[in-house]
């Protein structure tokens, strides 16, 4: 009997225990780091199941689990935690920093690494930094964020080209742009404009889709890309899904824009006084001046009584707007993760008639077929429509309207733009009687398969595709500059496709105390471009605006071109005892662009690091948490030249109305790779558990076998030939300081500061000086140095413009006396278009539910030449309206001023000289963001995990002594001339944008 009771009692206990463990309950909790700050995005997984979730913005989570099940908590940079579900419904976790995964994961070529074990110099920008800046340009988000990286927008047009220079300029005539790699696909970076005004090649990319941007700066990191690594490599990684709860995020914002700066020009009274005086100074009379004024005024009272006073600048620079809307959905299971997004951006630029509209769609999917086989696809599709303007060197572009007389009317009383009643062509005709549109379809895709051969060895195959289709159409009606032809139109269609195939093995294994990893593989790229164009004139109506309606087809053509790369690469690295790091890489690159015997180049690199803080004598130091020294050396290449630059080419021609061939290019069959050898020495510090971290680097880059457009005698029938000629170097220092100033539960403040120097010098130029306009390439000087006569102000006795002779005396000294004869003065090197020093300062502050961030950016040491000043500040040389500095002109003997006497048609100091060369130093408050997150206790009542309202200001303040529109804006019409840089010619300033927005996460 007792035995039976014992059995029954045991069965009851077993059942009760089973029931208790099978009972499902809701577990809530908050996850923080060891400093007490909430950790958003922590993965929580029920062990052995596909059920999981993530923490919200406040580090909170909720999950249904049975008693006895095990919850696994994982987060990058933190140690994995496990908790068993018991009777309590609350599980709070304080995660501990993982010393082996210190800081963030860093993307490197064909793989990843951790910040701790990186021996290269890599700058990283996160999605949080990118999303703070309301601009359609991805590159603009990098301004001030990365040491040694200069980001410059050509001008204020919505689609304007962007120049990125990584550690200075490493070439002269070859491409100076970095290699852009998006999700493993080196993207097309060619400029397909038809009016010499560049379009940003990344304008089709939605910044909200980007997870991170890594900039590979030194040779050790960039050499894995070999031939294209000389100018740095920009790795762009888009967002991907994570296993867990499906997350829906919505971002919507609207911004108001205006020019960052407007200049002061003369009003009607000031203009009349100046030009009357200038006419008299040139031997004329007041009546002569009145005659001139009446040529451009409808009524004499317009200028004599100030009845018309037009501010043409206000007509050219207008208020703009930025609309941005995006939705993304991400999530998935252990087997399949997905990220889907759509975006819309509409930018009305601050230049009249300039607009951009972009639609984008992205789908990133990863699927685990088995425990060994994984596949995935990344696809981005975008459609961009741009209403374009003429380039800066055109009277039809808005900014040149400032040359018009202030007493000229822009409109008739009935609203119709007058024809022929202004000094120059009235640009407003372009708005009402012309059309210039570009439509760009862009497809970026990458399909991969990854097979885990063994626990340590895996194979990955990637197929990438980049498709850029650009159709640019222009129409100029019968009332525009094309009035003589009764209308003109053209159309240009470019189709550019790139196919990329990457196959590589990755090996990762720990041998005793050695962590070893290696990558080996090959890459093949094939780029094909097709162009069709047609143009016509004589249109029956301005309402018919396509070439199909032209009575006469005046031109057209088509062309095809292609190039390819074939590369083999390998990289091996080892970390010994967690403190000694070694890495080496080798790439063997072949390009169809070079001569038959010089197509392949070898690009090696090595680096090493020593984490001294892991040694026993420092390991437990309470002050010093990290001390690492590192060094690297490597060779990178440059192939940024024409597809057939090594070949002598012939093209079709017409001779006496018969088909013929004529030479079009002089080739050099021995043309080979341009090589840059670079070494980098760096040291990293971390103090007080890395609350303070410092990175310091010295780099030295030497470029040899420069791919240079060498001038040749015109008697050859050609103007230049591409050859390997000359050498140059860049060297400098970089410093990055990151601090966590305050870490409290309700208050957090961090700061990031970077500053870098660069000295550029041409060390060898066997062919001698290369002069392009006001710029020069000369041995011993900076690339594209300014080369011009030195201006010395106005002669106090007579108001003549004075120039420094700078001629050579018989004794070998330089004659520094002045002359009023421009031709008696010699040109001298007067400045550099590139800065010696660039810096950035960012701060992030969180107080309870409020957040704030801001970034300052600055540069020093560069010069900018205001080429438009020869017409805008010209001592009334011609009738163009003048800047307000003319009010300080010389007027009587004894006047001390830099503004010579006003003389109509007198050319008094308007020659190209340092009169119009100024320092381009500036400090700019690049962006400020203020945000407020509504407490989750409120939002969860509406099934919303996070709701944040924010205000962002972009280009809010600029401090500079430059008297032009903006020290960063440069002329776009010579953007393809690598020597003609640093020149401002009616170049529009960037936009200052104030934005209100909302982030919603479900």
Automatic annotation (TrEMBL):
Residues 409-956 form the TonB-dependent receptor-like beta-barrel domain. Residues 115-233 form the TonB-dependent receptor plug domain. It is a multi-pass membrane protein. PROSITE patterns: TONB_DEPENDENT_REC_3. SUPFAM superfamilies: Carboxypeptidase regulatory domain-like (SSF49464), Porins (SSF56935). It is found in: Cell outer membrane. Keywords: Cell outer membrane, Membrane, Receptor, Signal, TonB box, Transmembrane, Transmembrane beta strand, Transport. Residues 1-22 form the signal peptide. It comes from the Bacteria. NCBIfam families: OMP_RagA_SusC, SusC_RagA_signa. Belongs to the TonB-dependent receptor family. This is TonB-dependent receptor. It comes from Galbibacter pacificus.
